[in-house]
Amino acid sequence: MKKAAFIGVGNMGGALARAVCRAAGPDQVVLYNRTRGKAQALADELGCGVVDSVCDAVWAAEYLFVGVKPKGMGAVLEELAPQIRDRHRVGEDKVVVSMAAGLLIKDLRPHLAGAGYYVPVLRIMPNTCVAIGQGLTALCAEAAAEDYVQGLEALLSATGRVERIDEGQMDQFSAVAGCGPAFVYPYIEALADGAVSTGLPRKQAMEYAAQMVLGAAAMVLESGRHPGQLKDEVCSPGGSTIAGVAELERGGLRAAAINAVQAAYRRSTELR
Question: What are phi and psi of 158, to 5 degrees?
């Protein structure tokens, strides 16, 4: 029995499949997608297998990563449940790993009633940076599922950082860390646009902006100093940096970032 099956290989499922293939080996991973061609293209890239149905995914692997949209999660779990029951009868236990934003474990459990026994359900929220091993993934589990957490952490070992949190913090985590890369990419693009407007070639502008953001983030994490202190250390009196910071303040950068996280949080809670 393989270690992991991915049911749904959209942006998040595909990114996570890449990382799990690195950690466990592609021979331990199978993919399923409603559009088979999408799963096959990713499998050809990664060297892992493809199955033809949700049922086949249950039979193939121990950890079932369900990466469908929240509104479709219930129907998929109800399709999984009888197959999980049949495998349990022959001594194979399965673990369901949900990647659905907004859906609590207690909301998912009734859809697995057809399994006829307690099915461990773990919940994760990765960001797409897991695809290159630089991601941040939140993980939560019921107490009864603790025995399966270590196995999941091993599968996620090549994703980047995995953070155990209380499920009550999952929506907040998602708003800043799950959605966050999409907030940062336009900022990098805008910085590059600004550099291009001053005469720097586009390719260089993009690389310099991205590397700068990477380095600045590393400074916050590795130094442990407050971002405000690090900002002050770059701003000389009357210099070019403080002039640029003043423009960011005038444009409402802080307020826009706060509003973006709050809007993402509100939307996440509405998905239940």
Answer: -100, 10
- Give the pLDDT confidence score for residue 101 in this predicted structure: 86
User: Virtual CA dihedral for 11, 15, 16, 19, nearest 10 degrees?
Assistant: 170
Question: DSSP labels for 46-115?
Answer: HT-EE-SSHHHHHHHEEEEEE-S-HHHHHHHHHHHHHHHHHHHHTT---EEEE--TT--HHHHGGGGGGG
Report field, pTM of the whole predicted structure over 0.85? yes
Which tokens is 51 given? Answer: 């199955």
CB atoms within 10 A of CB 145: 19
Residue 70 corresponds to which tokens in the numbers above? 């929240």
- Order the strands of the 135-141 sheet from edge to edge: 49-50, 29-32, 2-7, 61-66, 95-98, 121-125, 135-141, 160-164
Per-residue pLDDT of 24-75, as tens digits, reads 999 999 999 999 999 999 999 999 999 999 999 999 999 999 999 989 999 9
| C-alpha span between 27 and 91 (Å, rounded) | 22
For residue range 168-206, what is the model confidence (pLDDT) as tens digits?
999 999 999 999 999 999 999 999 999 999 999 999 999
